[in-house]
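@channel anyone free to eyeball this complex?
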Amino acid sequence: MGTTASQLGKDTLSEYQELTFLTKQEILLAHKRFSELLTKDEKDIPNIRISLERILTLPELKSNPFRKRICHVFSTSEHKDGSLTFEDFLDLLSAFSDSATMEIKSHYAFRIFDFDDDGTLDSDDLQKLVNCLTGETDETRLTPEEMRQLITNILEESDIDKDGTVNLSEFQHVISRSPDFVSSFKIVL
Amino acid sequence: MRAESECVKCESQIVEPGGGPRDTFKVRRPCRVMILVNPNSGRGQALQLFSGHVQTMLTEASVPYKLVITEAKNHARELVRKVDLTQWDALVILSGDGLLFEVINGLMDREDWQQAIQTPLGILPGGSGNALAASVHHYSFPSAGFSQTKELLLSCGFMLCKGLVGSMDLVSVHLSSRQRLFSFLSIAWGFVADVDVESEKYRHVGPIRFLMGTLVRLATLRVYQGRLAYLPNTISKTSVETQSDGNTKALLLDSLLPSLDEPVPESWTVVKEEDFVLVLAIYQSHLAEDLWAAPGALPDDGAIHLFYVVAGISRPALLRLFLAMEKGGHLDCGCPYLVYEKVKAFRLEPLTPQGMIAVDGETVEYGPLQAQVHPGIGLLAPMCPTSLPPPSLCRS
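replying in thread with the prediction:
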C-alpha cells in the first residue's frame, strides 16, 4: 500500500481504519501532521521515510523520556535508524491511542523498555530505563548504590523463574495491577 | 463487651517507643481459631504455607483450629456475616489483605456488629498484599526487618500462638453510591492506587514488588485533578457513637462526616492545590511488605495518616521518595511536594474523569468519597510484648 503525502485515498483511509485502533479523524490528523514535517519535494514520494531527528521535533514526542526507543520500536527501516514511514507513524499512534487494549499497550511498553531488543528485560535494560526516568544531570541520576538496590529489588521479586530477567508475561502481570496504565500510556496528537 | 469479660489483662504491657504502655488483653485459653484461606492467594501457595508451617505451629501450641477454604469472592464476607461467633475466639486470615477486608465488612454487616467487631482478628501473610502482616510485625519488632514472606509468616504465626491482642482503628468510608465500607489499611488515589489483582492467568506469579510498577508509572506520569479537605487530628479521641434505628439495632454513626453533597464543615482544612500526583490515607505503618509509608503509625493511634504529593514533582524526585519509603525515610527527603498530615476525617473529590481509587488494595467506584476514623473498635491479634525475642532466635 503506498501513500503519498499529497493525498489519502478513500480506500486507503478505510483500510487504515480497519488495521489500526485509530478513528478516521485521528488518521486524517496524523496525515496532516506527518506531511507538515516533509519538504515540498518529498511530498510526492510514495512511502517516504522521515528521519528520527525530524520525527522527534513533534511536540508530543519531544519531551517523552522514551522518544528514541518508541521510534526504534515502530520503525520498519532496514537500517534500524528509527526512521518512520507514514504507516509506521500510524502504527505508533494506534498503539498509544485511547482505544488500544491493555495487551497491546503492555506489549509495546515491554518492547520499548527492552533496550537491547533481546526479548527480555535484564539488569542493563532496567538501568537504562531508570536513567531515562531520572534525567540527564548528575544531580538527578541515582547513585550506583541506589541503582543497584533498585535493580536487585525489581529482579528479586519480578523474576519468578530466576533467570535474571523479566519476561513479557511477568511484566504484563505488573501492568495488570495498575489498571490506569492504559489511560496513562498515551500519545494523542 | 465479650472480650473484656472473658479476657485477662496481660501482666506485662507493651511499651511504646514513646514510653507509654499500651493495653493488651490475653485471649482465653484454649483459644479456638477459625482460619480462612484463599487457595488462589499469592502464587496459589497459601494452602501449602498453611500445611507446611502454620499447622505445625498451631498444633505445637495446642491451639484448636478449623480451616475454611474460601471458594469465591465474597464467600468469606457471607460466611462471617452468618457464623455463630460464640464458637470462635479469633478469626485468622491466611491470605493477602483482600480477604481481611471481606471479613471486617462481613462482621460490620451483622446486626450484632458491636460485639462481632470485637472478635480478635489475626493475619498471616499468604497473598500478594501483606501490608497488615508487615505492619503487625513492625509494631512488635520495630527494629527487626525481614527479607521474605516466609519469615514474616513465621513471625506472625509465632505471635498468634502467644495469643495477645490489641485494639485496632477502623475507618468508615462513604462512596457516592451511598455505600459504606470499613477499611483497616488504606485509601489510595493516583500514582499509588495499585490493585491487588489475582488475575487468573498470572496467579502463579506471586507478590510482585511495587518497584517495577513504580517505574512503569513514572514512565507514564500523570497528574490528577481533585479537591481534598480534612479534619486535623487535634481534637481529643472520639468515642464510638451509635444511634438507635428505632428497633434494637444500634447504628454506628459517622458523626464527623456531613452528607457527601454538603460542603465540609468550617473546622476542616481545605487543600488549596487541586493538581495531585497521589493522595494516600493510611492507618497502619506499612503499605506493602517493603513500603514503610507511615513511620510512627500504630494500629490504635486514632489517626488517619494522610499523605499527598502535588503536581510539579519531577520523576527523579518521586522515584527517590519511593526508594526512601522502603526504610521509612521519605519524610526526611525534604521534598516540598510531599505533604503529611494526621487527620480524623477527610474528603476527596476527584475531578479527572478517568482514574482509580483503591480501598485496602481493592478498587472501588471512582468518584467523591469521604472517610473518618473509629478509634479502637476492632481487635487485632497478634500483638506481642517487645521483650520477647524475634522468632528467628527461637527456631531450633
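from a first look: Chain B touches chain A at residues 193-197, 199, 201-202, 204-209, 211-213, 215-222, 290, 314-316, 319-320, 323, 326, 354-356, 363 (CB under 8 Å).
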